[in-house]
Amino acid sequence: MEIGPILRALSRNKLGVILISLQIAFTMTVMVNAVFIINERSKLMARPSGLDEPNTFYLSSTGFGDQFNSEVTERDDLELLRNPPGIIDATPTNAIPVSGSGSSDGVRIENDPTLPATPAAVYFTDEHSVNTMNLTLIAGENFSASDMTYQSSNERRYYSKAIVTLALAEKLFPGEGLAAVGKSFYRDQAPVQIVGIVERLQAPWPNSFFVEQSMLVPLNFTNATSTYLIRTEPGQRDRLMVEIEETLAGNNPNRIIRGLKSLQETREESYRLDSSMATILLVVIVTLVFITSMGIVGLAVFGINRRRNQIGTRRALGATQLQIMRYFMLENFFVSGVGVSIGAVLTIAFSIALSSLFEMPTMSWYYTPLGMLILIAIGQLAVLGPSARAARIQPAIATRSI
Amino acid sequence: MNNALFDVEEWLMKEEVLPNETKILSALAAMLLAVCLLNTIGLLLSKFLGKSGEIGVRQALGAHKGSLFLQHVIEAGFIGLLGGILGLAIAAAGLEGVKILLGENLMLTDWIHLNPTVVAVTLVLAVLATIFAGFYPIWRACSINPAIHLKTQ
Question: Which of A157, A158, A239, B115 has the most CB atoms around it within 10 Å of its CB?
Answer without folding.
Answer: A157
